[in-house]
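Our working data are protein records whose layout never changes between entries. An example says more than a description, so a record of this kind follows.
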Amino acid sequence: MVKRRISGEPFQLILGKASFYGRDFFINTNVLIPRPESEIIIDLLKKFKSSESILEIGTGTGCLAITCELENISNNITATDISPNALKIAYKNADYFNIENIQFSLHNILTDSFDKKFRVVISNPPYISKNEMQQLSSEILNYEPHIALLGGNDGLLFYHRFAQIFNELVSDGGYMLLEIGGDHQKISIQNIFLNYNLSIKFYKDLQNNNRVVKVYK
């Protein structure tokens, strides 16, 4: 284990698990390692108290969707991912926590549509630009899935898509909670949603960086 850590492998992958919202989730190299910044989404969902149906895009480990169930935020949850191998981990975590109400499905949000609307859509989408990818630490580049990191040339690909499909995805009075890459993306993301006549509000993480955007009508 020491040799693996010295070589640069993240300690969470060595242990095969990572903590999220006070619970340990199974992980491997097919999913992003859960990070504390994403816990803000759970805190905001608790604050807003309007989550009768939730769709999570890019569930990875399933930590967000599963935590929504465990924290009694919602018992009507759909969680999707483009990666079959990621969904295997999500299923494993759901089984470990005895979760039966989450509907997991293979889905490509960039090309596929849904046949129903949701009150809340949450996502920690890929938001790293091509240039930023080259500057990431070897711990991330060598051990975490690039498909879950790279958000197009400028890192904004998924936010354009969310703005485009907001009306067909979110029910009346609903909203999206999306994690973003930080302060440097704030203006660009703001303009994307404003161009679709959508309202937005940003929320900061513990480091005082803009980390989550709420999108609503």
Q: What stands out?
A: Residues 84-96 form the longest helix (13 residues). The chain has nine helices and nine strands.
